[in-house]
Design goal:
This protein is an alpha/beta fold. The protein contains 13 helices and 8 strands. An 8-stranded parallel barrel has the order 1-2-3-4-5-6-7-8, surrounded by 5 helices. Helix 8 links the parallel strand 7 and strand 8. Helix 3 runs parallel beside helix 4 and helix 4 runs parallel beside helix 6. The protein is globular, with a radius of gyration of 18 Å.
Length: 325
């Protein structure tokens, strides 16, 4: 798919934001991790999204993540800003700042906590899309926001020239099929267990949590689907299944990913910011039991996996709290 029709890429990583042990952004690890996943096959990076702990990042940190991402990517991958805000004016401000920082796209989450009507959701999306020239991905994740983006709302939003895609994290394949049949929107799978299922009905790609650990098999899956090779795509899916279960079942994805990345020696600390905390002993044991079932995933060597439950315990309070508003 050409970049003229798809400005986002196909294998997008929902990037974790590495922190130091005291909860500050570890910029050296951020650079290393971005370079690692791009080298391993990612062609898009979503910074400051759910997995990046957007809720506890400050606005300056969010903008700096875009800047660092652009610098490290060096044109090898697109940098998408994610997260947004449930305050429309704030989300517009972040979009403008992200565009100025060099973002290639903007992922807008459904307003959370406010529980607006669908008319309010649509207005929110349109105003943020109007605020910049960035191509937009709508982020549909009712499990976190409390409300879905209804089918009719997606159809109306699709008429906006900057709204080009949906990240689907509600698993409604029937709705996705209807929208794909009736619009030119691209769909990105936002639920790791269902990536292949989304691709099978016409999705463009994925925005994945597990891709922080293993971008290469997702690259293989996408390339196989593009080539019409279902057998190779299914093989990649099956190899990934126990890793996806390890990361997406027992604790929030960002907690599990940081725990595993640290155990692999790929980030310095597994720290998350409160109210997230590291896995408890029994949760860590479950993650490790699932990891034991992972075999032969390209680009990942679990023979060197050395998890540290003590390092992951608890959560951090950073020096500067919350967003600027």
């Amino acid at each position: 798919m050409s970049t003229s029709t798809n400005p986002f890429g196909q294998v997008l990583v929902a990037l974790v934001t590495p922190f130091t042990a005291d909860g500050e952004v570890d910029w050296k690890d951020v650079e290393k991790h971005i370079d690692d996943v791009i080298t391993a096959g990612a062609d898009g990076i979503v910074v400051t999204g759910t997995t990046g702990e957007t809720s506890t990042l400050t606005d300056p940190e969010k903008i700096r993540l875009v800047e660092v991402g652009k610098d490290v990517a060096g044109g090898r991958a697109k940098i998408i800003t994610g997260g947004g805000s449930n305050e429309t004016a704030h989300a517009m401000q972040l979009a403008r700042q992200s565009e100025k920082a060099g973002a290639d796209g903007n992922m807008i989450v459904t307003p959370y906590y406010n529980k607006p009507t669908q008319a309010g959701v649509l207005t929110h999306f349109r105003m943020i899309a109007d605020a910049t020239d960035l191509p937009v991905i709508l982020y549909d994740i009712p499990g976190r926001t409390g409300i879905p983006i209804n089918y009719e709302t997606i159809l109306r939003a699709a008429k906006h020239p900057n709204i080009l895609a949906v990240k689907d994290a509600k698993g409604d394949l029937a709705q996705a099929s209807r929208v794909l049949n009736q619009t030119d929107l691209m769909y990105f799978s936002g639920d790791d267990p269902y990536v292949l299922a989304h691709l099978a009905i016409g999705a463009t790609g994925l925005i994945g949590v597990t891709a922080n650990i293993a971008p290469t098999p997702y690259r293989q899956m996408i390339d196989a689907v593009n080539a019409g090779d279902l057998k190779t795509a299914t093989d990649a899916h099956q190899r990934l299944e126990p890793l996806v279960r390890a990361l997406m079942t027992h604790v929030p994805g960002t907690v599990a990913v940081k725990y595993v990345l640290h155990g692999l020696g790929r980030i310095t600390s597994p720290r998350v910011r409160l109210p997230l905390v590291g896995p408890e002993e029994w949760e860590a044991a479950q993650i490790e039991d699932e990891i034991d079932l992972v075999t032969d995933i390209p680009g990942v060597d679990f023979s060197n996996f050395r998890p540290d439950r003590n390092a992951a315990a608890g959560g951090a309070l950073p020096k500067v709290a919350g967003t600027t508003r």
